[in-house]
Design a protein that fits this description.
The protein has about 525 residues and is of the alpha/beta class. The protein is built from 16 helices and 19 strands. The protein has helices at about 20-30, 65-75, 80-105, 135-150, 170, 175-180, 230-235, 265-270, 295-310, 325-330, 330-340, 395-415, 425-430, 445-460, 470-490, 495-515; strands at about 1-5, 5-15, 35-40, 55, 130, 155, 160-165, 185-190, 195-210, 240, 245-255, 275, 315-320, 350-360, 360-365, 375-380, 385, 465, 525-530. α3 crosses α12 (about 395-415) and α15 packs antiparallel against α16. The structure holds flavin-adenine dinucleotide. Flavin-adenine dinucleotide binds near residues 19 and 161.
Amino acid sequence: MSKENNRYYTDVLIIGTGIAGCSVALTLANKGFSVTLITSGDDIDTGNSPLAQGGIVYRGPNDSPKLLQQDILTAGWKYNYQKSVKYLSNKGPDIVKDILINELNVPFERDEDSNFKLTKEGAHSVNRILYCGDYTGRAIIDSFKRKIKEHPNIKILTKHTAIDLITSHHHSLKLEFKYHLINQCIGAYIYNQQEDRVETVMADYTVLATGGVGQVYLHTTNAPSSIGSGLVMAYRSGAKVMNCEFIQFHPTALYQRGGQKFLISEALRGEGARFVRIDGTPFMKEYDPRGDLAPRDIVSRAIVEEMLRTGDDFVYLDAADFVKKDIPKRFPNIYKKCLEAGYDITKEPIPVVPAAHFFCGGILVDLEGRTTLNRLYAVGEVSCTGVHGANRLASTSLLEGLVWGHSAGLSISKRLQKKNRLSKKLMGSIPDWSSPGTDKNEDPALVAQDWLTIKHTMWNYVGIVRTTSRLKRAREDLHNLSKRLYEFYRNTPISKNLIDLFHGCQCAIIITDSANRNTKSVGCHFRVNR
Ligand SMILES: Cc1cc2nc3c(=O)[nH]c(=O)nc-3n(C[C@H](O)[C@H](O)[C@H](O)COP(=O)(O)OP(=O)(O)OC[C@H]3O[C@@H](n4cnc5c(N)ncnc54)[C@H](O)[C@@H]3O)c2cc1C
């Protein structure tokens, strides 16, 4: 990375340090290219990746790429892009082996003969999931972190928040670039939280790996960074976004007060746990013949229906009476977190609610992770590869981030080898950021209230069951808020809070507009036309 005043240049700028961003960075750095990896968090391990519990899809003994494809397509309501599903199913297990097992030595569980232990989750037809206790994501990210921090070709910038992508059409001060038919992404304006200034980072290729959107909902399992900022930046720059109505709600988050809910992994149901009513009777078979292991959208709606019927704020999940394994050993993290919340999962059922969990849509990309905007890539949860269609099969998202991260890295390296670089003239025509607002610092009460408006609006109107009138109300309320935020933004100096709020509101609008356009129920988009 070279620096001139407030301006930087790097071969590749990667925004986001989850499994997807790390996978791109390692692939490129191993090929000898210098990459800059940024995160708005204070270390690499922010985001959803370290929160993943259940595991990552590999290949079981009675498994085949075809069987995996079928399971993904069934979960995705055949709304998937078949080419991407095939690509993931064919390539995925080998990439897991090369990167996670051989290069990073992730300590996946093994039996006495050193063979991998493989588990099963909802809607998988065979045992094919590698795991590390119930902290698989943490184990993967810790292994990436060790490798990436010592790599000479990777520069990591923490507490750096991307505000906006820089494009030739939108930002160049030279008229000739505005007349070019092809708009190009040239990097991003990045807010350096420690120095409280905006830096201009130019890159031959920019990769968005900013993760999901769960934090625009009241109840979510997602990390605080999951506010859809990559989605919003790409959308604003003219890249195509797709399937944004498909938000998967996880049926089992521990019922507690507060924003981010602790996830109770589906693997617990894979090992036998069952949903029960307050009197202890299981109920899922009344909703779906697959019972407690039915796909997540069906289970989430069943729970909402049960909650509406009983007037309770939650249902119970009973592992104590149904799981035969040693729970504290198999699920140490869940066991500990439940104890901290006052429940001994080995002795009693625990209260659970559904929560916004996974974003199946995103920035449209091809098999290499290329977006429709030249020189811009997107990988991981922020992207839409078409793998998940209208709903996601459990444990395929870490795999998708790893595989597409690797493919994007290979694709970019090929282009860099062809010396396909940005012109000096174009880079020279890009101005530095000028902050519109200078008046006074933000009022925390306004920021907190605006976030509550976004989260409640999304939960109540654009949540598990969406009616036409709820969506109309959501659109009106969010567009009004957005207008107010533009004012706020024009008058207030830039800050991380302000950037996040702005991105969160725009993200909520993108989801709501998509949900409004799609008048049919499919997968995790459940639409009632009244
Ligand atoms: C509780 C939980 C359990 C899960 N369990 C599983 C599982 O068992 N198996 C599975 O396959 N999937 C699971 N998932 C889903 C999976 O974890 C995610 O889909 C995946 O980790 C996303 O990876 P990512 O790299 O795309 O994004 P993330 O890991 O979310 O990383 C996003 C990164 O972008 C950064 N960022 C965001 N915005 C900005 C910005 N404006 N500027 C700079 N940086 C920014 C963040 O700080 C972070 O570094 C789970 C998810 C959750 C929440």
